[in-house]
Design a protein that fits this description.
6-stranded antiparallel β-sheet; 15 strands; alpha+beta; BCAT-like_N; 295 residues; 28% helix; Branched-chain-amino-acid aminotransferase
Protein backbone atom coordinates (compact mmCIF):
# COMPACT_ATOMS: atom_id res chain seq x y z
CA UNK A 1 0.00 0.00 0.00
CA UNK A 2 1.25 3.51 -0.77
CA UNK A 3 3.12 5.41 1.95
CA UNK A 4 1.26 8.61 1.05
CA UNK A 5 -1.10 9.53 3.94
CA UNK A 6 -4.76 9.07 3.12
CA UNK A 7 -5.50 12.77 3.61
CA UNK A 8 -2.70 13.90 1.28
CA UNK A 9 -3.51 12.15 -1.97
CA UNK A 10 -4.45 13.53 -5.36
CA UNK A 11 -7.78 13.01 -7.06
CA UNK A 12 -11.46 13.48 -6.29
CA UNK A 13 -13.93 11.98 -3.84
CA UNK A 14 -17.68 11.74 -4.33
CA UNK A 15 -19.16 13.51 -1.32
CA UNK A 16 -22.93 13.90 -0.87
CA UNK A 17 -23.62 13.88 -4.58
CA UNK A 18 -20.68 15.98 -5.79
CA UNK A 19 -17.10 15.33 -6.80
CA UNK A 20 -14.78 17.35 -4.55
CA UNK A 21 -10.97 17.62 -4.50
CA UNK A 22 -9.47 14.88 -2.34
CA UNK A 23 -8.06 17.34 0.23
CA UNK A 24 -11.45 19.08 0.62
CA UNK A 25 -13.42 15.95 1.60
CA UNK A 26 -13.62 16.84 5.29
CA UNK A 27 -16.02 16.48 8.22
CA UNK A 28 -16.23 18.21 11.61
CA UNK A 29 -14.50 16.67 14.64
CA UNK A 30 -17.86 16.54 16.46
CA UNK A 31 -19.41 14.22 13.89
CA UNK A 32 -21.68 11.55 15.37
CA UNK A 33 -20.13 8.83 13.20
CA UNK A 34 -16.71 9.51 14.74
CA UNK A 35 -17.85 9.54 18.36
CA UNK A 36 -20.57 6.87 18.35
CA UNK A 37 -19.55 4.68 15.38
CA UNK A 38 -22.77 5.41 13.45
CA UNK A 39 -20.98 4.59 10.21
CA UNK A 40 -21.28 1.79 7.65
CA UNK A 41 -19.01 1.05 4.72
CA UNK A 42 -18.16 -1.24 1.83
CA UNK A 43 -14.78 -2.38 0.53
CA UNK A 44 -14.83 -3.19 -3.18
CA UNK A 45 -12.39 -3.74 -6.02
CA UNK A 46 -12.44 -2.51 -9.58
CA UNK A 47 -10.85 -4.74 -12.22
CA UNK A 48 -10.40 -3.44 -15.74
CA UNK A 49 -12.72 -0.52 -15.05
CA UNK A 50 -15.54 -2.63 -13.60
CA UNK A 51 -16.33 -2.92 -9.90
CA UNK A 52 -16.83 -6.56 -9.01
CA UNK A 53 -20.39 -7.19 -7.78
CA UNK A 54 -20.98 -3.46 -7.40
CA UNK A 55 -24.75 -3.81 -7.03
CA UNK A 56 -24.46 -6.42 -4.26
CA UNK A 57 -22.09 -4.12 -2.37
CA UNK A 58 -24.39 -1.13 -2.78
CA UNK A 59 -27.35 -3.19 -1.59
CA UNK A 60 -25.42 -4.31 1.47
CA UNK A 61 -24.40 -0.71 2.22
CA UNK A 62 -28.07 0.29 2.25
CA UNK A 63 -28.97 -2.72 4.40
CA UNK A 64 -26.18 -1.94 6.85
CA UNK A 65 -27.51 1.58 7.23
CA UNK A 66 -30.98 0.23 7.99
CA UNK A 67 -29.52 -2.07 10.63
CA UNK A 68 -27.92 0.99 12.26
CA UNK A 69 -31.31 2.74 12.13
CA UNK A 70 -30.66 5.19 9.33
CA UNK A 71 -31.65 5.44 5.69
CA UNK A 72 -28.99 6.20 3.10
CA UNK A 73 -30.50 8.95 0.90
CA UNK A 74 -29.42 7.45 -2.43
CA UNK A 75 -30.79 4.56 -4.45
CA UNK A 76 -28.67 1.49 -5.13
CA UNK A 77 -28.31 2.41 -8.82
CA UNK A 78 -27.22 5.94 -7.89
CA UNK A 79 -24.53 4.60 -5.57
CA UNK A 80 -23.30 2.23 -8.29
CA UNK A 81 -23.15 5.09 -10.81
CA UNK A 82 -21.24 7.26 -8.35
CA UNK A 83 -18.66 4.52 -7.73
CA UNK A 84 -18.15 4.11 -11.47
CA UNK A 85 -17.72 7.89 -11.83
CA UNK A 86 -15.09 7.94 -9.08
CA UNK A 87 -12.87 5.31 -10.70
CA UNK A 88 -13.25 6.97 -14.09
CA UNK A 89 -12.47 10.51 -12.88
CA UNK A 90 -9.47 9.27 -10.90
CA UNK A 91 -8.29 7.09 -13.80
CA UNK A 92 -8.20 4.02 -11.56
CA UNK A 93 -9.53 1.08 -13.59
CA UNK A 94 -7.83 -1.32 -11.16
CA UNK A 95 -8.37 -0.07 -7.64
CA UNK A 96 -9.90 -0.46 -4.22
CA UNK A 97 -13.20 1.39 -3.77
CA UNK A 98 -14.57 2.54 -0.41
CA UNK A 99 -18.20 3.66 -0.17
CA UNK A 100 -19.42 4.73 3.28
CA UNK A 101 -22.22 6.52 5.09
CA UNK A 102 -22.40 8.17 8.50
CA UNK A 103 -24.39 10.41 10.81
CA UNK A 104 -23.29 14.05 10.73
CA UNK A 105 -22.59 16.77 13.29
CA UNK A 106 -26.00 18.38 13.84
CA UNK A 107 -26.11 17.02 17.40
CA UNK A 108 -23.74 15.03 19.60
CA UNK A 109 -25.17 12.51 22.01
CA UNK A 110 -26.11 8.86 21.96
CA UNK A 111 -29.26 9.77 20.05
CA UNK A 112 -28.61 10.96 16.51
CA UNK A 113 -32.09 10.96 15.06
CA UNK A 114 -31.80 14.58 13.86
CA UNK A 115 -28.40 14.13 12.25
CA UNK A 116 -28.01 14.23 8.49
CA UNK A 117 -26.84 11.05 6.77
CA UNK A 118 -23.77 11.68 4.61
CA UNK A 119 -22.34 9.44 1.89
CA UNK A 120 -18.89 9.47 0.35
CA UNK A 121 -16.98 7.28 -2.13
CA UNK A 122 -13.22 7.16 -2.64
CA UNK A 123 -10.90 4.95 -4.69
CA UNK A 124 -7.18 4.32 -4.58
CA UNK A 125 -4.54 1.81 -5.64
CA UNK A 126 -4.29 -1.16 -3.29
CA UNK A 127 -2.58 -4.05 -5.11
CA UNK A 128 -2.66 -6.67 -2.35
CA UNK A 129 -3.67 -6.79 1.30
CA UNK A 130 -0.60 -8.90 2.04
CA UNK A 131 2.96 -8.77 0.70
CA UNK A 132 3.06 -10.77 -2.59
CA UNK A 133 5.90 -13.06 -1.48
CA UNK A 134 4.10 -13.80 1.80
CA UNK A 135 0.79 -14.42 0.05
CA UNK A 136 2.19 -17.00 -2.39
CA UNK A 137 3.77 -19.19 0.28
CA UNK A 138 0.87 -18.79 2.70
CA UNK A 139 0.46 -16.23 5.45
CA UNK A 140 1.02 -16.83 9.16
CA UNK A 141 -1.94 -16.30 11.50
CA UNK A 142 -2.17 -16.30 15.28
CA UNK A 143 -5.18 -16.60 17.58
CA UNK A 144 -7.00 -13.44 18.65
CA UNK A 145 -7.79 -12.73 22.28
CA UNK A 146 -11.13 -11.12 21.46
CA UNK A 147 -14.10 -13.17 20.26
CA UNK A 148 -16.84 -12.20 17.85
CA UNK A 149 -19.82 -11.13 19.98
CA UNK A 150 -23.23 -12.74 20.28
CA UNK A 151 -25.50 -11.37 17.48
CA UNK A 152 -27.99 -10.48 20.22
CA UNK A 153 -25.50 -7.84 21.40
CA UNK A 154 -24.48 -6.35 18.02
CA UNK A 155 -25.93 -6.05 14.49
CA UNK A 156 -23.56 -8.69 13.11
CA UNK A 157 -25.08 -8.60 9.60
CA UNK A 158 -24.05 -4.95 9.17
CA UNK A 159 -20.69 -3.90 7.80
CA UNK A 160 -20.39 -1.23 10.47
CA UNK A 161 -17.27 0.59 11.58
CA UNK A 162 -17.82 -0.03 15.29
CA UNK A 163 -17.72 -3.79 14.82
CA UNK A 164 -14.11 -3.53 13.62
CA UNK A 165 -12.70 -2.12 16.86
CA UNK A 166 -11.73 -5.54 18.22
CA UNK A 167 -10.46 -6.49 14.76
CA UNK A 168 -8.01 -3.58 14.76
CA UNK A 169 -6.80 -4.45 18.25
CA UNK A 170 -6.37 -8.11 17.29
CA UNK A 171 -4.55 -7.35 14.03
CA UNK A 172 -2.17 -4.95 15.77
CA UNK A 173 -1.23 -7.60 18.34
CA UNK A 174 -0.73 -10.18 15.59
CA UNK A 175 1.49 -7.89 13.51
CA UNK A 176 3.62 -6.96 16.51
CA UNK A 177 4.22 -10.68 17.07
CA UNK A 178 5.27 -11.18 13.43
CA UNK A 179 2.00 -12.60 12.10
CA UNK A 180 -0.07 -11.30 9.19
CA UNK A 181 -3.47 -11.66 10.85
CA UNK A 182 -5.43 -13.28 13.68
CA UNK A 183 -8.16 -15.91 13.77
CA UNK A 184 -11.14 -14.95 15.89
CA UNK A 185 -13.47 -17.39 17.62
CA UNK A 186 -17.08 -16.48 18.33
CA UNK A 187 -18.58 -16.01 21.80
CA UNK A 188 -19.27 -19.77 21.96
CA UNK A 189 -15.63 -20.65 21.26
CA UNK A 190 -16.25 -21.72 17.66
CA UNK A 191 -13.99 -20.77 14.74
CA UNK A 192 -15.42 -17.60 13.19
CA UNK A 193 -13.24 -15.45 10.90
CA UNK A 194 -10.05 -13.43 10.68
CA UNK A 195 -9.95 -9.72 11.47
CA UNK A 196 -11.09 -8.70 8.00
CA UNK A 197 -11.61 -11.90 6.05
CA UNK A 198 -13.58 -15.16 6.10
CA UNK A 199 -11.77 -18.48 6.41
CA UNK A 200 -11.91 -21.86 4.63
CA UNK A 201 -10.30 -25.26 5.20
CA UNK A 202 -9.99 -28.44 3.14
CA UNK A 203 -10.01 -32.10 4.15
CA UNK A 204 -10.22 -35.10 1.83
CA UNK A 205 -11.28 -32.92 -1.10
CA UNK A 206 -14.10 -31.22 0.81
CA UNK A 207 -14.22 -27.49 1.54
CA UNK A 208 -15.19 -26.51 5.09
CA UNK A 209 -16.10 -23.03 6.33
CA UNK A 210 -17.73 -21.75 9.53
CA UNK A 211 -21.43 -20.96 9.58
CA UNK A 212 -21.85 -17.21 9.07
CA UNK A 213 -24.22 -16.80 11.99
CA UNK A 214 -22.09 -14.49 14.15
CA UNK A 215 -20.09 -12.57 11.56
CA UNK A 216 -20.48 -11.00 8.13
CA UNK A 217 -21.26 -13.40 5.29
CA UNK A 218 -18.72 -11.85 2.93
CA UNK A 219 -19.47 -11.27 -0.74
CA UNK A 220 -16.09 -12.81 -1.60
CA UNK A 221 -16.96 -15.76 0.67
CA UNK A 222 -20.21 -16.29 -1.22
CA UNK A 223 -18.37 -16.03 -4.55
CA UNK A 224 -15.77 -18.64 -3.56
CA UNK A 225 -18.47 -21.04 -2.38
CA UNK A 226 -20.16 -20.66 -5.77
CA UNK A 227 -16.87 -21.21 -7.61
CA UNK A 228 -16.14 -24.34 -5.59
CA UNK A 229 -19.57 -25.78 -6.37
CA UNK A 230 -19.03 -25.08 -10.07
CA UNK A 231 -15.94 -27.30 -9.85
CA UNK A 232 -17.92 -30.02 -8.16
CA UNK A 233 -16.17 -29.46 -4.83
CA UNK A 234 -18.39 -30.28 -1.88
CA UNK A 235 -18.81 -27.30 0.47
CA UNK A 236 -19.79 -27.74 4.11
CA UNK A 237 -20.84 -24.60 6.00
CA UNK A 238 -20.81 -25.88 9.55
CA UNK A 239 -19.69 -25.47 13.14
CA UNK A 240 -15.90 -25.76 13.34
CA UNK A 241 -14.17 -26.04 16.71
CA UNK A 242 -10.53 -25.06 17.30
CA UNK A 243 -9.53 -28.63 18.17
CA UNK A 244 -10.39 -29.60 14.57
CA UNK A 245 -7.77 -27.32 13.03
CA UNK A 246 -5.09 -29.99 13.13
CA UNK A 247 -7.18 -32.28 10.92
CA UNK A 248 -7.33 -29.92 7.93
CA UNK A 249 -4.91 -30.01 5.00
CA UNK A 250 -5.28 -26.61 3.35
CA UNK A 251 -6.46 -23.25 4.58
CA UNK A 252 -7.15 -19.92 2.93
CA UNK A 253 -8.93 -16.67 3.68
CA UNK A 254 -11.21 -14.59 1.48
CA UNK A 255 -12.22 -10.94 1.29
CA UNK A 256 -12.34 -8.02 -1.10
CA UNK A 257 -8.91 -6.84 0.03
CA UNK A 258 -7.43 -10.31 0.64
CA UNK A 259 -9.11 -11.89 -2.43
CA UNK A 260 -8.12 -15.58 -2.00
CA UNK A 261 -5.01 -15.82 0.17
CA UNK A 262 -3.42 -19.14 1.26
CA UNK A 263 -2.63 -19.72 4.94
CA UNK A 264 0.42 -21.73 5.99
CA UNK A 265 0.11 -21.43 9.74
CA UNK A 266 -2.44 -20.73 12.47
CA UNK A 267 -0.67 -20.66 15.83
CA UNK A 268 0.62 -24.25 16.29
CA UNK A 269 -1.24 -25.70 13.29
CA UNK A 270 0.37 -25.99 9.83
CA UNK A 271 -1.21 -26.11 6.38
CA UNK A 272 0.14 -26.65 2.88
CA UNK A 273 -1.41 -24.58 0.06
CA UNK A 274 -2.56 -27.24 -2.38
CA UNK A 275 -4.65 -28.01 -5.43
CA UNK A 276 -7.99 -26.73 -4.14
CA UNK A 277 -6.54 -23.44 -2.91
CA UNK A 278 -4.65 -22.87 -6.17
CA UNK A 279 -7.71 -23.74 -8.26
CA UNK A 280 -9.95 -21.34 -6.37
CA UNK A 281 -7.31 -18.59 -6.52
CA UNK A 282 -7.22 -18.99 -10.31
CA UNK A 283 -11.00 -19.24 -10.57
CA UNK A 284 -11.47 -16.10 -8.52
CA UNK A 285 -8.96 -14.18 -10.64
CA UNK A 286 -10.82 -15.25 -13.77
CA UNK A 287 -14.18 -14.40 -12.24
CA UNK A 288 -13.31 -10.81 -11.32
CA UNK A 289 -11.47 -9.90 -14.52
CA UNK A 290 -13.90 -8.68 -17.20
CA UNK A 291 -11.63 -9.76 -20.10
CA UNK A 292 -10.95 -13.18 -18.59
CA UNK A 293 -14.65 -13.69 -17.86
CA UNK A 294 -15.54 -12.85 -21.47
CA UNK A 295 -12.88 -15.10 -23.00
Amino acid sequence: MSAIPMDSREGVIWFDGQLVPWADAKIHVLTHGLHYASCVFEGERAYGGQIFKSKQHSERLKQSGELLDFTIPYAVDDICAAKKLVIEKNNLPDSYVRAFAWRGSEALGVSGLANKIHVAIAAWEWPSYFAPEERLKGIRITMADFHRPDPQTIPSRAKASGLYMICTISKHKAERAGYADALMLDWRGRVAECTGANIFFTKNGVLHTPLADAFLNGITRQTVIELAKRRGIEVQERIIMPDELGSFEECFITGTAAEVTPVAEIADWRFTPGAITRALMDDYTAEVQPKAAAA
